[in-house]
Design goal:
The chain is of the alpha+beta class. The chain has helices at 2-20, 32-40, 104-108, 149-152, and strands spanning 45-54, 57-60, 64-66, 71-78, 89-97, 100-101, 113-121, 128-132, 138-147, 157-158, 162-167.
């Protein structure tokens, strides 16, 4: 809610400047959407993906691996032109219900809660964070949120949720 309040205050301040100035710094055909884009940034793409730890380093993975596989979360935030975000914060979230991890459908339907797992600064390769492994078969839902601040030019956003499943050996 804090970011939204600041965005609204900044939008109100922009309107106040426009209303009080004799000459508008905004083109005559600019509207509220143009001002919002200037203040909040343009929509981007927000993607969470999975890597697995192997004896030789990190490797790409499908969303299904045997129990014991060590999972690493990876973010990819891009602007509307496809450029990677160079600033901002990524927060990884995990789906939870009654204190237990759950598939993303549980949280997407309102039956669970997205809980913060880790937050960190964006870097050029995407924020890599180790989640860990499971010793019993299960599916766990993940997603990421992005907060770019004013300097990134990319609007705050949320990725689609994605499940990772540990299967029996």
């Amino acid at each position: 809610m804090e970011c939204r309040s600041r965005g609204i205050a900044a939008l109100a301040a922009a309107f106040a400047v426009l209303a009080c100035s004799e000459q508008s710094p905004v083109a005559p055909d600019a509207g509220v959407d143009d001002l919002r884009m200037a203040i909040q940034g343009t929509p981007g793409s927000y993607v969470i993906s999975f890597l697995k730890e192997t004896s030789t380093g990190l490797a790409s993975t499908t969303a299904t691996e045997p129990v014991g596989t060590y999972l690493v979360l990876k973010s990819e935030v891009r602007d509307n032109l496809g450029n990677l975000a160079l600033s901002g914060t990524v927060t990884y979230q995990v789906c939870s219900t009654k204190g237990n991890y759950a598939p993303s459908a549980t949280c997407n339907s309102g039956g669970g809660t997205w809980k913060r797992f880790f937050s960190g600064s964006v870097d050029p390769i995407g924020l890599l964070v180790g989640f860990g492994s499971c010793s019993t078969p299960r599916a766990i839902g993940f997603r990421l949120t992005y907060s770019g601040g004013r300097s990134s030019g990319i609007a705050n956003g949320v990725s689609a949720s994605k499940d990772f499943t540990w299967t029996a050996l």
